[in-house]
Design a protein that fits this description.
This protein is of the alpha+beta class. It is built from twelve helices and ten strands.
Length: 361
């Protein structure tokens, strides 16, 4: 073998060794990342994450668990993962809410215009089963979650014997939503519905109040967002980034039509800008009496190789049917399914954000 050829082979071998060392070093970085101390302490203190769960997150795993609320009717789920992209990459994906929420169980996700328009609801279409439930509604007994005045509205605004009663019901439901969103934008939480679908009245605002009283991690990372959730439309600290959207999809045995109000707060963190996002449920047609979802997007220590962050998701909901023996069984099944769904969602978000960010580099 010639001397030049031996040198070339040695050069290739050395280059491959350097590449292998670089990959192993990068893998070591990925596996060795520690949570920012403030976030680690907050997860352990506020969300009762175990040391084993925190180690799993630091090792690149996706962790989901049920947080004990000491309440039979409330369910709180926590999900944590690490994403190799800067926090701004996550925010860009999230603000395209239709794509962010896309899944096989979601049939439509639409942002409301500013101000909201009836045309924003063109994709909302009730099923014949939905219309039949509305037709039979009366105060204290209704297949949809509605207040007394709203039940009366559907009884009087739709000719239930007409051949086009389904179209009439859909049109009436769209107008009901538009009027409701406009009232909310004028009066805030005072305008949130008081459901009377069962013998007991249920106030969306009550659930929101209780969730905020227990969401101590949100108060630590973004007290201004707590103020906004309570004080909209006249909070002491208005948010520059907020939007309303509606969604339809399947959950359990029935389709669910829901409206949410999202607020985004940018705040300083130890390793760069962080984002705290809150999604307040304004309405859900079935199952949910109140809900609040919080996302913490916190930059990690290593911002040298494109950036990275930790995503913490906290889902709080007040759900029907949790009392008695059947309720305990339903709760176990519902929480197990919801936890699996959250884990799948986090894996998809991680993949989507990392892929989208890397494609732009």
């Amino acid at each position: 073998m010639s001397t030049n050829k031996r040198y070339r082979q040695r050069g290739v071998t050395a280059a491959m060794a350097k590449l292998l060392f670089g990959l192993l070093f990068l893998r070591g970085i990925c596996l060795a990342q520690q949570l920012p101390p403030t976030l680690r302490q907050a997860l352990a203190h506020h969300l009762k994450a175990s040391q084993r769960q925190l180690k799993s997150v630091e090792g690149g795993g996706i962790v989901t668990y049920v947080f004990d609320t000491n309440s039979r009717e409330d369910i709180t789920l926590v999900g944590i993962t690490r994403i190799w992209a800067p926090p701004s990459a996550f925010l860009a994906e999230y603000e395209d809410i239709a794509q962010f929420e896309a899944s096989s169980s979601v049939t439509a996700t639409v942002k409301f215009s500013r101000p909201p328009q009836l045309s924003d609801l063109d994709k909302l279409k009730l099923s014949r089963q939905d219309a039949e439930e509305l037709k039979l509604c009366k105060p204290g007994s209704c297949g949809f979650k509605l207040g007394d005045s709203d039940i009366q509205r559907f009884r009087s605004s739709v000719n239930w014997t007409a051949p086009d009663y389904l179209d009439q019901a859909t049109g009436s439901f769209r107008q009901f939503w538009l009027d409701y969103v406009n009232r909310y934008q004028e009066s805030g939480n005072a305008a949130l519905l008081v459901y009377h679908d069962t013998s007991q009245y249920s106030r969306i605002a009550d659930g929101l109040r209780d969730f905020l009283q227990t969401a101590s991690i949100l108060l630590q990372f973004s007290p201004d967002l707590v103020d906004w959730l309570r004080g909209y439309p006249h909070p002491a600290h208005p948010l520059p980034d907020e939007f309303l959207y509606w969604q339809s999809g399947t959950f359990g045995l029935k389709p669910v039509y829901r409206i949410a109000h999202v607020g985004v707060q940018r705040t300083a963190a130890g390793y760069g800008d962080a984002y705290v996002i809150a999604s307040k449920m304004l309405y859900a047609s079935h199952y949910f009496r109140s809900a609040l979802e919080i996302r913490l997007v916190i930059p990690g220590q290593d911002q040298k190789i494109g950036g990275m962050h930790y995503l913490v998701t906290v889902q709080m909901s007040r759900v029907d049917g949790m009392g008695g023996f059947r309720g305990r069984f339903f709760r176990a099944v519902a929480t197990q399914r919801a936890r699996r769904a959250l884990e799948t969602h986090l894996a998809e978000v991680k993949r989507r954000v990392e892929t989208g960010f890397n494609a732009k580099q």
